[in-house]
Every structure is written in structure tokens, then in C-alpha cells.
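Ticket 4471: requesting a sanity check on a complex prediction with N-acetyl-L-glutamyl 5-phosphate. Repro inputs:
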Amino acid sequence: MEISPETQEQKKAQALIEALPWIQRFSGKRMVIKYGGNAMINEDLRRAFAEDIVFLHHAGIHPIVVHGGGPQINSMLDRLGIESEFKGGLRVTTSEAMDVVRMVLTGQVGRELVGLINSHGRYAVGFSGEDAGLLRAKKTGTIVDGEEVDLGLVGEVTAVDPSAIVDLVDSGRIPVISSVAPEVGDDGQLTGDVLNVNADTAAAELAAALGAEKLVILTDVEGLYAKWPDKNSLISMLTADELRDMMPTLESGMIPKMAACLKALDAGVPQTHIVDGRQPHSILLEIFTSEGIGTLLVPGSPESQAPATTPESGAQA
Ligand SMILES: Nc1ncnc2c1ncn2[C@@H]1O[C@H](COP(=O)(O)OP(=O)(O)O)[C@@H](O)[C@H]1O
Ligand SMILES: CC(=O)N[C@@H](CCC(=O)OP(=O)(O)O)C(=O)O
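Returned C-alpha cells:
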């Protein structure tokens, strides 16, 4: 059926009006948006992402962008002939690979996003976990099949000082953060080394330290699947307790991603959301529509959840 022009205009107006209660709810609040390297698949998508971030800013929300860049690091390592592998969803990082991780994340992926956002105005400031003492990390391994595995120069965040990010946000800027962090030793002193921190982990730590209202993670799947890779098993909403039970069944990149979401929820972030970054403007659809998209993760257990699909009551389903 052909939609009459009048109806089309009404649909546009309806979409704008639907956004109003969500703008009221989130205005003045901080929101951490993690943009995964696998979701940055083409220039149009990256441009749409930058538009969404500027839109959020002008809707009165304070977006803080944390970006990944796993595939971009892979291609630079390939070009340089440096081998690298992932264990438990984390890159085994030699000191040679660490130079590349730092160069690609801070010097390439971060710079490009800053440029795209700033094509709309003087908003974005590139930042890394090394700047102004933002992050501190200590070396971490991972457990694979019950065995402790050494990952080299991979870090878990031990401290966040968000004051410089708060200053930037308060002065109307949009921070764009890359996830490398100075290492602290067992004595709590800086060792002089820099560690590779998974970007989901860094985003969750920042969301917690900044008291963010929401952590949105853009990736290259529609959300979390109960029986990956069965595409009929997409989960629209899950509580932290249910996710905790599911953790041992997860694979590859979903392991650090879901561990990060749990960390944020346990630290008081009211909701985290996994969204398909391959869909243009997915952030706007997630934040400003009542249906929401992707997988919503909330604290507590199924019993502690009230049905919550309005801005006043809580979360989009
Ligand atoms: N249960 C699951 N649901 C969805 N994706 C899963 C699941 N288990 C593993 N994955 C994998 O996790 C990937 C997302 O993680 P990752 O590759 O690290 O993305 P990003 O670069 O966005 O951080 C998906 O592309 C998919 O291959
Ligand atoms: C320790 C570890 O695995 N670090 C990641 C950092 C980048 C990242 O997390 O990028 P995505 O969000 O695109 O996956 C890496 O080296 O690939």
C-alpha cells in the first residue's frame, strides 16, 4: 500500500514525539558508548555513528565514546608480519605487538573518530588511558579450559581517575577514549610499561567511575544470543544474575564483553545494552524509541524486575 504524503509527515512527527520522554529522561546524564572495531565496517557507518554522537550531545546527553579496533590492529600486525592470537577473547600481546596496539588505537582509530565527529563542530577530544592518569592497570591472564593462560602485556584496570573526562564533558566536549593504560606493579608504582586493555573492559570501568546512566556497546551482531550461532536465539532482555549463570557458556569476543557488562551493572550502572553497530543510527533507535533494539542487560534477578518499558519506569525492552 502506498503511504500518502500526509501519513509520511505524521510518521516523521510521531518519531520525533516518541523521542521526547527519552530525551527528558536522559538529558544531563552521562552515557558511555563503546564502538567496537568490528562495527566500524565502512565509512558510511562511521559517519552515521559520528552523527548519532553529535545528536546525543545536542539532545542534552553527555556521550563519552570508548572505541575498540581489534580488526584494525590485526590488519596492521599482518602488514608488519607480526603474528598474534586471541585466548579467551583477549589478544596475547607481546611488546612488539603492544607498540602496534597503541599506535593503531590512539593514533589511527581514535583520530579518525575524532575527525568524523569534529566535521560537525568542535566537539571531540581524543584521549587515552595514559592521559591525565585516566586509567591504571595491572597485568592479567585468563582461564581457558580451566588452565591459567599468560597473555603478556594485557591489563585489567585497577584504578580510574575520571576527573579530566568530567572536565571535558562539563566544558561541552565529547571525549573519544582508547583503551591502553599505564602499568602499575604490585607495589602500586608505575612500571613505565603500557598495557593493552580490552575496550569493553575499559568502557565498563569508565561507565562505573563516571556514574553513567547507561553503557551502550556497538558490535557486529544483533545482540547476545542464548545459543550462538543460532540466529533464532537472540535475547532481548537479561538480568545480571541470569547473565552470571550464562558466562561459562560464552565464546570468543562475547566473554570480555559480557564480563564488562556484569562489572558495570554490579558497580551501579542501571543498564547496559548490546546493539548492532552495522545498522546505521542504531544508537538513536536504541536510546530514543520505546521498543529499543539489541539486548538489554539490567541488574538483579528476574524476580526483582518490574515490567519496564516507559521512560518513567526504566528501560526499553
Ligand atoms: N552468545 C553470543 N552471542 C553473540 N555473539 C557471540 C556469542 N558468542 C560469541 N560471539 C561472537 O562475539 C563477537 C563480538 O565480539 P568481538 O568480535 O570482540 O566484537 P567487537 O569488535 O565489537 O568488540 C560476535 O561477532 C560473535 O562472533
Ligand atoms: C586485550 C585485548 O584483546 N585488547 C584489544 C583492544 C582493542 C579492542 O578491544 O577492540 P574491539 O572492541 O574492536 O574488540 C585488542 O588488542 O584487540
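Notes from triage: The first helix runs from residue 5 to 26. Leaving this open until the requester confirms.
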